[in-house]
Design goal:
By secondary structure, the protein is α+β, with helices and mostly antiparallel strands. It contains 14 helices and twelve strands. It has three domains: 30-183, Conserved hypothetical protein from pyrococcus furiosus pfu- 392566-001, ParB domain; 203-257, no CATH class; 265-325, no CATH class. The strands form four sheets. Strands 6-10-8-9-7 form a five-stranded mixed sheet. It has a three-stranded antiparallel sheet with strand order 1-2-3, with no helix packed on it. The termini are far apart.
Length: 326
């Protein structure tokens, strides 16, 4: 557990004061009631915002960089909590304010030349600010995978939290935390590609299957240049590493289901029966020879009583059993 914090009932995290009293809620794992930090998320947006100078607001170092695509993604109803759109959430910093949620609104206002904007101002300690950033920015889809991974890294390295404790505090399983942290094993150039959106998290996870740093960088650069999909990246990694990609594995499993030839034999015979029931004049012959199975169907196009000889001649038809095989 991180210093000064104990887990309460049902995994709820409480931060204690220096004297051991004055407990206050830090995070609720279920997130069902939107509780994070010392106050509920709904209470954050219920607070009356105040206008603050935008020039005094500092975005986090790992935040998604400004781009038209990023600012366009802000859609009505995207946030989980009513009242979050058009309002920044900040905490007081040594110089100005640190932005915890509202990156898109902030960037849009700054690009439009606005000097001030509405914001809910919170007084939070570092560990609390990290949790608020995790939850609120995730709700607004403003948290990129790399920033999320680095927040987890800070919670473990600086505040002594285990992955299980972080997961319990934000309602995620431990494996999700571990998979995000693995992204930090990638080269700096690739990490920057994740942050800026040049590649997605699934692309990055595929690269982690390679141990050769130079090969990872080579495939990353080729992926960016050719705009590969995640499946194309997985296949390229599989070819280089001599392993099966998830797509190949799925294809292999699909082939295995239909490996029994009898399924197809019976299907062809059923088709021949349906042709006969429909009144078509046809002759059918089957033959097995030299490890090969041959199925022949001849249909009269002129409505004659017979199509002529049985396919392959009387000997073949008799050997295969003709219509009797159907």
């Amino acid at each position: 557990m991180w210093p000064g914090v104990v887990l309460g009932s049902e995994g709820t995290a409480w931060r204690c004061g220096p004297e051991g009293g004055g407990k206050r809620l830090l995070a609720n794992p279920s997130m069902g009631d939107g509780t994070v930090g010392r106050i509920a998320v709904r209470e954050i947006y219920a607070r009356k915002p105040v206008d603050i100078p935008l020039r005094s607001v500092r975005r986090r170092e790992d935040s998604v960089p400004p781009s038209e695509a990023f600012m366009r993604e802000r859609a009505a109803g995207e946030g989980l909590f009513a009242g979050d759109e058009g309002v920044l959430v900040v905490r007081r910093a040594s110089e100005g304010y640190e932005l915890l949620a509202g990156d898109r609104d902030f960037l849009r206002w700054a690009a439009a030349g606005k000097e001030t904007g509405p914001a809910v101002v919170l007084e939070l300690e570092d560990v609390e600010a990290l949790f608020v950033r995790l939850v609120l920015a995730s709700n607004r889809r403003e948290l990129n995978p790399l920033e999320e991974a680095r927040i987890y890294q800070r919670l473990t390295a600086e505040f002594g939290m285990s992955q299980d404790e972080i997961g319990a505090a934000i309602g995620k399983v431990q494996s999700t935390i571990a998979n995000k942290l693995r992204l930090l094993k990638l080269e700096g150039e690739i990490q920057e590609g994740i942050r800026t959106g040049r590649i997605g998290e699934r692309h990055a996870r595929a690269l982690l299957r390679l141990e050769d740093s130079e090969l990872r960088l080579k495939l990353y650069r080729e992926c960016v240049r050719k705009n590969w999909s995640a499946e194309e990246m997985e296949l390229a990694v599989a070819l280089k590493a001599g392993i099966r990609s998830p797509l190949q594995a799925k294809s292999r499993r699909r082939v295995g289901v239909y490996r029994d030839l009898r399924i197809f034999q019976n299907s062809l015979r059923q088709i021949a029966r349906e042709m006969l029931r429909a009144g078509l004049r046809c002759e059918v012959a089957e033959e097995e020879s030299g490890g090969t199975w041959v199925f022949r169907v001849a249909v009269s196009l002129e409505g004659k009583e017979s199509c002529g000889k049985r396919l392959g001649g009387e000997g073949e038809a008799g050997q295969a059993g003709g219509l009797g095989k159907i």
